[in-house]
């Protein structure tokens, strides 16, 4: 699956290379960006409540079209009004019907809200491309990068003033993320071969969380009790897209996840 996504990004990378060679690559946006990690830490209550990163997700390979009628601006306002710590924006076009323009639209509708560019990024010029839009952070998937590329992508990301959410699927991925000093770890509960999800992945990997790291659990979280369980395991945030976007009342669904609270031991 990841190789299909990589192949779909080749035309984008070739276009960026041509722009860079001609001097036409858009410059980074000036000024500071909202703190993605800071917003998570402000909303999370360790062991009790996870911050919610709410995702603007129009479609996916596993679900097909999810909700093409909601605009990025409408969703950003709903998310900001109902307690999202950050907004994840799918920008991949071929399989998720995303667009980089959605970052701009979301930023205009919810000023100050940290935005995550969620896409399949494998080349430093894609980081530069991201920096030309109002993203606070971008996603790097460990399995799509060898060690040299992962180190380079992290360095360029930080140099551009962005934060990196480093996604892992298992212990081997986590080992590599840790070696390269990733500050924000996202555990994806989805099996890439079958596209099924299993929250046991987060259950298992949670024992490996190190002090000073921000951890996010992603995929398969749709209910408040699941969000609460992730907080109990030590996750600082959950990333939720499909269950919010597919519902009849996204704001209410999000608010329920935001308010989810784990029971304390002995309570």
UniProtKB/TrEMBL annotation:
It catalyses: 1-(2-carboxyphenylamino)-1-deoxy-D-ribulose 5-phosphate + H(+) = (1S,2R)-1-C-(indol-3-yl)glycerol 3-phosphate + CO2 + H2O. SUPFAM superfamilies: Ribulose-phoshate binding barrel. Pathway: Amino-acid biosynthesis; L-tryptophan biosynthesis; L-tryptophan from chorismate: step 4/5. This is indole-3-glycerol-phosphate synthase. It comes from the Bacteria. Residues 32-252 form the Indole-3-glycerol phosphate synthase domain. GO terms for molecular function: indole-3-glycerol-phosphate synthase activity; phosphoribosylanthranilate isomerase activity. Gene3D superfamilies: Aldolase class I (3.20.20.70). Keywords: Amino-acid biosynthesis, Aromatic amino acid biosynthesis, Decarboxylase, Lyase, Tryptophan biosynthesis. Coiled coil: none annotated. Its EC number is 4.1.1.48. One of its GO terms (biological process) is L-tryptophan biosynthetic process.
């Amino acid at each position: 699956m990841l190789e299909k996504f990589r192949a779909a990004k080749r035309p984008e990378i070739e276009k960026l290379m041509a722009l860079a060679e001609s001097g036409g690559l858009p410059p980074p946006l000036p000024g500071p960006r909202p703190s993605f990690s800071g917003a998570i830490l402000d909303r999370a209550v360790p062991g009790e409540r996870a911050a919610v990163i709410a995702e603007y997700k129009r479609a996916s390979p596993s679900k097909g079209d999810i909700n093409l009628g909601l605009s990025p601006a409408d969703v950003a306002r709903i998310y900001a009004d109902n307690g999202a710590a950050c907004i994840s924006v799918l920008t991949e076009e071929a399989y998720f019907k995303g667009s980089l323009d959605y970052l701009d639209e979301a930023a205009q509708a919810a000023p100050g809200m940290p935005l995550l560019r969620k896409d399949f990024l494998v080349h430093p010029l894609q980081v530069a491309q991201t920096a030309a839009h109002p993203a606070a952070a971008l996603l790097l998937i460990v399995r799509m990068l060898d060690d040299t590329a992962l180190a380079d992508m992290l360095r360029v990301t930080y140099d551009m003033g962005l934060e990196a959410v480093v996604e892992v699927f298992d212990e081997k991925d986590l080992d590599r993320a840790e070696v390269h000093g990733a500050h924000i770890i996202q555990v994806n509960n989805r099996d890439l071969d079958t596209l099924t999800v299993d929250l046991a992945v987060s259950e298992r990997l949670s024992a490996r969380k190190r002090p000073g790291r921000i951890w996010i659990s992603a995929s398969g979280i749709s209910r408040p009790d699941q969000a609460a369980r992730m907080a109990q395991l030590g996750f600082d945030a959950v990333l939720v897209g499909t269950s919010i976007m597919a519902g009849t009342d996204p704001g209410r669904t999000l608010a329920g996840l935001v308010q989810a609270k784990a029971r304390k031991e002995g309570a």
